[in-house]
């Protein structure tokens, strides 16, 4: 036998060893997907710091300027008080928080003005249409020449590095397919009405200026996100779609859904493809400052795997449950207001879908500072089982006041939304708002809404996330490569190992 010929059992042993060690290493470093954060808890703390800082600024300025426009919402306060926001639209990209922080959209690119609301030829879009804009290869910041109702003929396939910015106009997107983000990154969708989306397909659709492909039938989601990262959906209003209002599946991560209004729908939001899809373990989504409003039934969201941070949202309606999940997702619910329906059988906020208690008892579902109204209750599990549950069951009027303030301008800015409460004013006009509830003497405003435990913050920098260290991964990979090289014939398994890295 040639001295370098591999003995079959030995080869399989080392291949098995490599797969095990690689899996452990990737899991330990939390680096499964592009843009997946290695320390999601540090992202949660960063959101906490930003809300603290924004509310603190508002309280301080309110003492001398009762008409100032700050709301305490760190996203809106980042850009809306600038009277010249329309001349500096791309500032918006600096305002994202949560897991999508760093999403560029079309920042740095040209402004593309949509002047034509038609969608007559999805395979060969007309210049000036939204479809022509979103398929371009280069970064683009897409705006609208005026109010538009865009009735899509088929799904709108959006390319990477695009911002769809509806500020300054009333833009409705409806029709067949609606918005599709498939294996792209750095997309911002802002200030758009999305509604009455229906399944369509089995036709040719352009996804870039040089590629036209046959598409099967879409589900009729409002926004469908597949295999995509760095996605930010902000100040949108979504309703009346055939399938989900927003679905994110197939290894999508680094997503923030914020300041949006959801209504009139059954299955609102799905996060995760199915219980057996391993890449969704790396899904990380921030759901912040949204209003889940009229005539909603379930899935706000329904999550599989991953880490879902649900923070400072107002849930005013559900018929079955608000937050559901399977396949051991982490659900971190902080500072939300849950108003239960009259039905005594639907008071529970949470639902473990098709899973018995013996399986979900160790899942990390936690509630902190949530306000429970009309008998609503959150069932924590795993690391969520603590005294925080007791704190969350008592209503703090300051917390309720802050939720009203943080979500006061949800949905499309300056446009109608289906809600009988709150009000909106045109983006960047610097209009007045109601003063925030509660006194200005509390040091930790975010802790006030969370029920304590936060650090006081009226200045300084947010806590930096820990650096990503790859030393362990590199060392283990080197050892595995060395072993495989010395035990394989002409490095045959070496090439396989490198491929799997």
TrEMBL record:
Signal peptide limits: 1-23
Pectate lyase domain boundaries: 147-344
Enzyme type, top EC level: lyase
Entry-linked InterPro entries: AmbAllergen, Pec_lyase, Pectin_lyas_fold, Pectin_lyase_fold/virulence, PEL
Keywords: Calcium, Lyase, Membrane, Metal-binding, Signal, Transmembrane, Transmembrane helix
TM stretches of this protein: 474-500
Pfam families found in the cross-reference section: Pectate_lyase_4 (PF00544)
Keyword Transcription: no
Involved pathway(s): Glycan metabolism; pectin degradation; 2-dehydro-3-deoxy-D-gluconate from pectin: step 2/5
Cofactor binding note: Binds 1 Ca(2+) ion. Required for its activity.
Cofactor: Ca(2+)
Record SMART domains: Amb_all
Reaction(s) this enzyme catalyzes, per UniProt: Eliminative cleavage of (1->4)-alpha-D-galacturonan to give oligosaccharides with 4-deoxy-alpha-D-galact-4-enuronosyl groups at their non-reducing ends
Species, as recorded: Acer saccharum (Sugar maple)
Protein origin, superkingdom: Eukaryota
Name of the protein described by the UniProt record: Pectate lyase
Family of this protein: Belongs to the polysaccharide lyase 1 family.
A GO MF term: pectate lyase activity
EC number: 4.2.2.2
């Amino acid at each position: 036998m040639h001295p370098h010929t591999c003995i079959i059992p030995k080869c399989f042993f080392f291949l098995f060893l490599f797969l095990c060690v690689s899996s452990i290493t990737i899991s330990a470093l939390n680096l499964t997907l592009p843009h997946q954060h290695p320390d999601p808890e540090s992202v949660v703390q960063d959101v906490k710091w930003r809300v603290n800082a924004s509310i603190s600024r508002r309280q301080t300025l309110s003492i001398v300027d009762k008409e100032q426009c700050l709301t305490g919402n760190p996203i809106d306060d980042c850009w809306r008080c600038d009277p010249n926001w329309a001349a500096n639209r791309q500032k918006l990209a600096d305002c994202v928080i949560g897991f999508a922080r760093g999403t560029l959209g079309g920042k740095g690119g040209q402004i593309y003005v949509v002047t034509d609301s038609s969608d007559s030829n999805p395979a060969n879009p007309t210049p000036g249409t939204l479809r022509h804009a979103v398929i371009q290869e280069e970064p683009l910041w897409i705006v609208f020449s005026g109010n538009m109702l865009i009735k899509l003929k088929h799904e709108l396939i959006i390319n990477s590095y695009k911002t769809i910015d509806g500020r300054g106009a009333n833009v409705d997107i409806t029709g067949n397919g609606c918005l599709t983000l498939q294996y792209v990154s750095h997309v911002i969708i802002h200030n758009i009405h999305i509604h009455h989306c229906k399944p369509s397909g089995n036709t040719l659709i352009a996804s870039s200026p040089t590629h036209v492909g046959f598409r099967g039938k879409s589900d009729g989601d409002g926004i469908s996100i597949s295999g995509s990262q760095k996605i930010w959906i902000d100040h949108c209003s979504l309703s009346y779609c055939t399938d989900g209002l927003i679905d994110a599946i197939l290894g999508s991560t680094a997503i923030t859904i914020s300041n949006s209004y959801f209504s009139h729908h059954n299955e609102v939001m799905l996060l995760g493809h199915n219980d057996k899809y391993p890449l969704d373990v790396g899904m990380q989504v921030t759901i912040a400052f949204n209003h889940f409003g009229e005539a909603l039934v379930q899935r706000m969201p329904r999550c599989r795997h991953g880490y879902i941070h649900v923070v400072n949202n107002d849930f005013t309606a559900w018929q079955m449950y608000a937050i559901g999940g399977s396949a051991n997702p982490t659900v971190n619910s902080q500072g939300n207001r849950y108003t239960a329906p009259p039905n005594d059988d639907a008071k529970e906020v949470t639902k473990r879908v098709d899973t018995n208690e013996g399986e979900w008892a160790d899942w990390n579902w936690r509630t902190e500072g949530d306000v429970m109204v009309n008998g609503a209750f959150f069932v924590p599990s795993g690391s969520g089982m603590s005294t925080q549950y007791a704190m969350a069951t008592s209503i703090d009027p300051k917390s309720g006041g802050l939720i009203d303030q943080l979500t006061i301008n949800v949905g499309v800015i300056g446009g109608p939304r289906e809600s009988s409460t709150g009000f909106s004013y045109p983006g960047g006009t610097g209009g007045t708002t109601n003063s925030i509830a509660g006194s200005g003497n509390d040091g930790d405003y975010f802790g006030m809404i969370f029920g304590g435990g936060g650090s006081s913050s009226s200045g300084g920098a947010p806590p930096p996330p820990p650096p990503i260290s790859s030393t362990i991964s590199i060392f283990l990979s080197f050892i595995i490569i060395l072993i495989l090289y010395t035990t394989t014939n002409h490095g045959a398994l070496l090439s396989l190992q490198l491929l799997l890295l």
